Amino acid sequence: LRIDSLSGIYDKQPLRAKGDLARSQDDWRCTACDLSFGPNRILVDGEMGAGTLSATVKVDAPELSLLWPPVSGALTADANLSGSASQPAFSGTASGSEISWHDWALSSISLSSRSSTRDRVDLDIDVDGLKRGDSAFGGGSARLSGTRDAIDSVLQWKLGKVEAGAEGIIGLLEKGMVADVRSASLGEPDLGN
Asked: What is the pTM of this model?
């Protein structure tokens, strides 16, 4: 199915689409697929099937609430998906600002993955301004790299003047999680530590 140009109005927002969409048994192929809804835009190029996943995805969503009403804020992403639907691999970046969901909120979030799968992770995450209602939880970062049972982890968090950090190995097991903490710190400058 080739769509040169499809446009209309949905929920009082302009809707535009174009691209080539093909299906062969259980496989889907989307070539230069471009979907815009209001100010939000999603670009997809690639294929997905029972044994194959190979796609690039770009998202520019300054009004997330139009795409998924419980969520507000802005999100951009540039990702490569590979592997298979049952064993996907993700590499790319994503960032968001003023994200809220129900009574949770984030001032900003950024994520960078060099090649993360269900069994292996290589991921950096930064968050700032985490809140739930009137309660502030601060912000921090996580650097994660390794296999599911041995993820090398560097965690940092700050709330006001209090700073906490930890380094170690996290293991995600079938029935829970284990951690081996190599070092941990907690500091508050007014107390001299």
From this structure: 0.84
